[in-house]
Design brief:
Layout lengths: L7 E7 L5 E8 L13 H4 L4 H6 L2 H7 L5 H21 L11 E8 L3 E7 L1 H11 L7 H5 L1 H6 L1
Antiparallel strand pairs: 1-2, 1-4, 3-4
Helix pairs in contact: 4-5
Length: 150
């Protein structure tokens, strides 16, 4: 039977210059990865937190090629999860118990580590509203086979 709690957990690491050092996006209850747990880590590594927070989906797809609508959805999910966590960290969102992105833990040592819980339904609605899932044609522009289906 599938788990009824679909909340996800994002563990984010920033270096001393507020640059992305790494992250993991996992299911909170079972610890399984959401797609690939660090899907965008190599593409976004070293980006400044402010620049990452301001990144638009089109800019992501200029850096990261997708091969399917599923991969496009997962890439957007990872980007929006990272941006939600950074908004909480930088004080642009509350991150309280009633919020879509909820602060779970902050640790500071060699790197700043932030852990947030994410209400999946809200994140999914954000992806739909931005039109990236077949709406705006970002994927069709990149993949001739998808364009032929449109």
């Amino acid at each position: 039977m599938p788990c009824e709690d679909v909340t996800e957990s994002l563990q984010l690491r920033l270096d001393h210059d507020d640059r992305l050092a790494g992250y993991r996006l996992l299911k909170r209850t079972c610890g399984r990865a959401v797609g690939e747990e660090s899907l965008l880590a190599t593409v976004l590594a070293g980006m400044n937190a402010e620049d990452l927070l301001a990144m638009q989906p089109e800019a992501l797809f200029d850096r990261y090629e997708v091969d399917s609508e599923e991969e496009e959805f997962l890439a957007l999910k990872h980007l929006l999860a990272l941006q939600g966590a950074l908004a909480v960290l930088l004080g642009r969102a509350d991150g309280g118990p009633a919020d879509a992105v909820r602060m779970a833990a902050v640790r500071y040592g060699e790197e700043l580590e932030l852990e947030v819980d994410i209400v999946v339904e809200v994140l999914t609605e954000k992806i739909k509203s931005c039109g990236k899932c077949s709406g705006c044609g970002v994927l069709r522009k990149k993949l001739p086979a998808v364009a032929a289906l449109a």
